[in-house]
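Subject: for your reference before the review

Hello V.,

The reviewers asked for a structural picture of the protein, and I figured it would be easier to keep everything in one thread rather than splitting it across files. Below is the amino acid sequence we used in the manuscript, unchanged from the supplementary table.
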Amino acid sequence: MTLAVALAGAGIGATSAAAAAAPVYYVDDVNGDDANNGTSAATAWRSLAKASSATLVPGAKLLLKRGGQFPDRLTVAESGTAAAPIVIDAYGTGARPVVKDDGEACVDLAGNYLEVYNLQIGVDGDAGRCSWSGIKVRGNDNVVERNLVTGAAAGVFIDAGAKYTAVTANDFVNNNKMSKLTPKEVHPNDDSGAFAVLVHGDDANIAWNTMRGSVAFSYDYDWDGAAVEIFNGSRNRIHHNVSIDNDTFTELGIGPGGTADDNVFEYNAVYGAKGRGGMITRGAVHDNGKPEPNGPVFGTIFRNNSIYLTNAAAEGVVCDAGCTNRHLKLTQNVIYAAKKSGYAESGFTDNTRNVFYGGQYQMPPGTGNKHADPLFDTANPLRLKAGSPAVGLGNVKYNDLDLAGAPVGGNGTIEAGAYEY
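And here is what came back from the structure prediction:
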């Protein structure tokens, strides 16, 4: 896989005459001075407070010095354009510049057409955390790419109303802080946090990221966390991500008056001994007649994903509270989970050409499914070995590339799961 192919459409390379003429500002935490004009490395500003107060025109660049430590919030309220985005990036040599130590959001993207590259957002520990979110996205058409995001309750938070966010080719590591953690006797069902990406917005492209360590202690659930949590967000596309040791890969839900409809998950790989869940979604009413407070979620598509969860409590795909074909389409996945490979009620039948293995299977039988050892290659996680029942099981090409960047169908067959054989 080449990076250019993987990130096609993510916003790289946008140029125009306006962008070429726009100013470039520099921030140096050691040798800078906020009294400077900021327009060269020799006359750099010193603080993010100064950078946040600057007026950035379309095409402007704001560059942080590599090796720098920036303990403050960076807020960008101005907007670029599609042809001339405002770019936040690193300059110099050495380690990524570190933006850290804010109680709300270390980077706040309030405007539109903003792009953030090559930064470290937060630290992996209590001192200097981005306590709530590493990057908070409030505007539209923003790009978060090739960053290391760590230590937050929500590594990237896509706020309600934000549209067309691209979160691509980032490393999310140990975003394992709980934003709400109260004993059960205080509140039995309110713990929340430990998200790599938390999506309240719509139409995001979340792709080619590695997400690991989004798991934290919870009074209510023993453990909690997710690689991608969708709450009141619709039409988001989550694809070609690697999820390792997150409590859950994804959970979808809604609050009062909200929707989380038509989200698509494809070509993701989910594994790790700490993982207890692959995908969780829901209908509207439980078997006992009790309404589901976080449902219904409609139109979720889950296809060509590979799940291998060996934790004794692990469940692969769960769709409860009156799950029907209106709520979920499940096709061409490979799902191994130690406790339960799949669960849904009798109204759900849109379950085709998957491989299930491991613990209990509690779904209607579906069509063309196989219940057999998927023969994952333990030396090359979630790739398929010869003789795997996933080889040739697929019949629809949903993407041009698999998770390794190989052409789908290039070997003459379409496989179930995230990797071609």
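For the response letter, the relevant points are probably these. Residues 267 and 418 are 4 Å apart (CA to CA). The longest strand covers residues 334-344.

Happy to draft the paragraph if you're swamped.

O.
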